[in-house]
# Entry
Amino acid sequence: MNKTNKTNKTNKTNKVVGRKIVTTLLAIAAAFLVGSLAAGGDAAAKVGGAGQTEHSSMVLQAQQFQQSSEPLVPVGTSFTYQGRLKDGPNPANGQYDFEFKLFDALTGGTQVGQTITRANQTVSEGLVTVSLDFGSTAFEGQARYLEVAVRPTRSGSFTTLSPRQAVSPAPYAMGLRPGVAITSTTSSVQFGGENQMPVDIRSEENVPLRSVSLHELGIGVFGYANGGENSEGIHGYSGNGIGVYGQGGAWAGYFQGDVNVQGDVNVTGNLSKGGGSFKIDHPLDPANKYLYHSFVESPDMMNIYNGNATLDAKGEATVVMPEWFGALNKEFRYQLTAVGAPGPNLYISKKVENNRFSIAGGSPGMEVSWQVTGIRKDA
# Structure
C-alpha cells in the first residue's frame, strides 16, 4: 500500500501515512459440500509502516453441519474466505480491494491457478467475506498456501500480507466432489475400514470412479480383504449390465489361484489350458457326490459328429448333415460300426459332398453306428 497520498490530504480514509493494517485470517472454509463453515480466531499478520511484520497463531472454529450420504445438488469448486481487517488498533470500515494467490510453498514456490481479485469489498467492523475459486485442479492432495494483498479501493499499490496462510483441511473436501481427480506421485490413495463395505461410491455418470497408474508396474485398483474365506477384495455388481469390466494391452484380467464361476462363461477368442474336465452332480447321488469327466484333446481343432443309420433294402444309407457342415469343416475322417451283427463289408460309398455322405455294403435293415470328424476351416 502507498504510505502517503499527497494528492488528496483531505481524504483521511485514503491517507495511509503511518497507518497499520492488521488482518486476521479467521478461516478458509468449504462452502461447496454442506454450506460454509462459520469461523473466528485471533491470528494476525501486522504490516507496519516500515514493512516489518509480526505474527501470532491462527485458531479455527467450525460449526458442525448435518449432511446426507448423497449430495442434493451438484457442487462446485469455490469456497468461502473470511478475514478480519484492522486499521491501526481499530476494526477497519469502508471499501477495500483484495488480491488472492495460491502457492505450493510457504515461501517462494509456484503459484497454483490464477490470481483472484475482489475489488471494492465492503469491510464492516473489520469483517470481510469473499468467495474464492482456484479451479478444479487446485486441490489434489498437495499442500497449499494462500497469499493475501490489500489496499483501500483504487488507492495505489497492494500491500502483501506475510506470511502466507496454510490452507486448512476444509477446502480439500473438494477432493470428494463428483468428477474429482486425486493425484499422488509418492504413495497410493487408500480406503479402509472394519465394516463390510468401507467405501460406497454412487454416481449417475458413466464412470463414477476412475483410477490410473502411470508406473511401469502400476496397479490401477487394488482390493484386499482378510476377513475370512468368504471375504472379497473386489466385488462388482450390476443389475442389468456388467459387474466388472477389464481391458488391457497384455491381459484384461490376471488371476493367481483358483477361479470359481457360478454361471456361463463366454469366450470369443482361443482358450489355452493345461487340462480340463467337467464336474456335475452325480446322477445317482446328486446330494452327496459329483461326477467328473475329462475333456477329449486333439492336436487339431477337430469337430466330432456321430449317429446311427438303418440300411435300406440294398444295404445302403445316406446320412444328411447340417447345412453349415461343409462351410465349417474340411479333411473328413469316417468310422462305421455294425450293430447287432457283423458287417465286414461296410464302407463309405460316397464321401461328404453337399453336406451328406453314403454308406453301403451292409445287410438290409442293419443298424450302423457312424462317426465323422472334420478339421475346422478357421483353425
Summary: The chain has one helix and 19 strands. Confidence is low (pLDDT under 50) at residues 1-72. Residues 235 and 265 are 18 Å apart (CA to CA).
